[in-house]
Design brief:
alpha+beta; first zn-finger domain of poly(adp-ribose) polymerase-1; three-stranded antiparallel beta sheet; globular; binds zinc ion
C-alpha cells in the first residue's frame, strides 16, 4: 500500500534520479514533481520523482496541488494544464484515497444505504469501512449514492464536513462534476 503524503515541485539537484512514470533520467536543473510516499517496506517516507509532463498525464491532481503552491516560473504551463484536464476527463487518474467520488464502472454495486444498485455511469461515493469477516476486521470499500451519504454517516466514519473535504481532495473528476456531486451530497442531508 502506497500512501501519498506531500507533493513538491523543485529543480533537480542532480541528474541521478529517474522519472517513476517513463523511467528515464531527470536532467539536473529540470523541474520535477516529488510525491512523498510511504511504502509497506519502510517506516520513513521517500520521494518519488516525475517529469512534469509525465506527471500531468499520470498524477494530474498531485501535480495541480503542487503547481498551486509553487512560486517559480513553470515553462509550458498552459500545455501542462491542458494535459492534466485531459487526463482527469479520460478518468485514467487513480483516486488519491478514501473517500472519493467517481462514475460507477458497472451497475453491480449496491448502495449501502438504500440497497438499490448504483447505475452504471452514475456518480457514486466510495468510502472505506471496517467489516467483520468471521472474527477479524477487514477494511473494504463501500459505495453510496451521493444523496444517500448523509443518512449513512456510520459507514462514512466521520462527519459530513470531513467526508466532503476528503471527496474534494481525493476525487479525480472535473471541478464542475465535483460541484454537482457535492450539492447532491449536501441535498441528501437537508
Ligand atoms: Zn518522465
Ligand atoms: Zn442509495
Amino acid at each position: 500500500m502506497v500512501r501519498a503524503m506531500a507533493n513538491v515541485i523543485e529543480e533537480a539537484k542532480s541528474g541521478r534520479a529517474s522519472c517513476r512514470t517513463c523511467k528515464k533520467a531527470i536532467a539536473k536543473g529540470e523541474l520535477r514533481l516529488g510525491v512523498e510516499t510511504q511504502t509497506q517496506f519502510s517506516d520513513t517516507p521517500s520521494m518519488q520523482w516525475h517529469h512534469l509532463p509525465c506527471a500531468a498525464g499520470k498524477l494530474p491532481a498531485e501535480l495541480k496541488e503542487a503547481l498551486d503552491t509553487y512560486e517559480g516560473e513553470v515553462p509550458n504551463r498552459a500545455e501542462l494544464d491542458a494535459a492534466m484536464e485531459e487526463a482527469i476527463k479520460k478518468g485514467n487518474a487513480k483516486p488519491g484515497g478514501f473517500p472519493y467520488t467517481d462514475r460507477a464502472p458497472t451497475g453491480r454495486a449496491k448502495c449501502m444505504e438504500c440497497d438499490e444498485p448504483i447505475e452504471k455511469g452514475a456518480f457514486r461515493v466510495a468510502v472505506e469501512r471496517e467489516v467483520d469477516t468471521g472474527g477479524f476486521m477487514r477494511r473494504t470499500p463501500g459505495y453510496l449514492h451521493p444523496q444517500c451519504v448523509a443518512a449513512n454517516l456510520e459507514n462514512v466514519g466521520g462527519s459530513l464536513d470531513e467526508l466532503l473535504e476528503g471527496v474534494r481532495k481525493n476525487s479525480r473528476i472535473t471541478q464542475g462534476e465535483l460541484d454537482g456531486v457535492i450539492s447532491d451530497i449536501e441535498g441528501g442531508g437537508a
